[in-house]
Amino acid sequence: MRGHGETEDQRTILIFRVRRARQKAMKAAIAEARSLLAEFNPAMMAGGPLGDQPGLFWLELEESLVPAAMDRIPFLGYTSAVDIVRFSEGKAKGKARRTAIKPTWRGRPFDLEPLHQEDSDEFREQAPDRRSFVLQTQGGDLKAVRGYRGDSGQLSRRGLPVSDARLLVNLAFVRLGGKMLDPFAGAGGIVVAAVHLQQHVFTVDIDPVVQWGLRHQGSRHCVGDARHLPFMDGSFDSVASEAPFEAANDVVGDVVTEIGRVLQPHGHVAIMVAEHQGDAARNHARGAGLVLTLDIPIDRKGLPVTVLAWHKS
Predict the structure, then answer these.
(1) pLDDT tens digit sequence for 104-125
(2) DSSP code of 41?
(3) At 129, is the pLDDT very low, low, confident or very high (cuts 50, 70, 90)?
(4) Which overall architecture, per CATH, does domain 127-312 show?
(5) For site-directed labelling of 251, which of 212, 245, 270, 306 has its Cα 20 to 30 A away?
């Protein structure tokens, strides 16, 4: 927060580069970054250096808070790189001016200092078809398989993309060490992203097959129906999840009601639903005391989905 007498020069501009596949969801990318960095009080900028390039947005932070922000930025889902803008002092003169022409913004020359650049190979290895998942064999032994559930069944091949899992976790993020719930845990994409943010993760899934894998990933798991969550009122700081797109609308609505019950006041929720499930989720959220903060459609490889985020008043 800018204190009395603090000048503009004590703040730093960060340029966020949104991954190409998610540039049409720029609003979600901005909301994700602001949520994850909320305690550092980032100021949104309508434009900034390199404003003629596509897929960019800008946040302004106090210079002293940038090192702490650096610890979180690598866990963003929709952003693949972040640069710091370093303005030059004065103007270049003589030979230096002729040989090193710098870009300018509002008449001030600047350099870009890379703060984060995603390792594409490392990111790819975290995808659900690459990471290991623990299953119980017919003989009762536990076995780690590579990719989903280790077979080619339709449900076995489904997993939340890494970028979307991170997005949901970051939109719901409240604090380090918080308690986060995923009521539709599936293959554990939310768990992986949440554990990286030092969340104490609890999961629920009606399919008993996934319990071993989820626990191995680091969650405290319960086999059960998300419409009847086995937790006391106000148990969680946050909830992040992707609803099964084949689930009936009333199922999704009932789960949103339960989410409102187990969420603490001032807690955050972020869920991804199929487009046709959106109205049921919105209607039940209002009845559960949840205040809508984000409602944005996303095209996920031809599949129309909606990201919804709320906070509990």
Answers:
(1) 999 999 999 999 999 999 999 9
(2) -
(3) confident
(4) 3-Layer(aba) Sandwich (3.40)
(5) 212
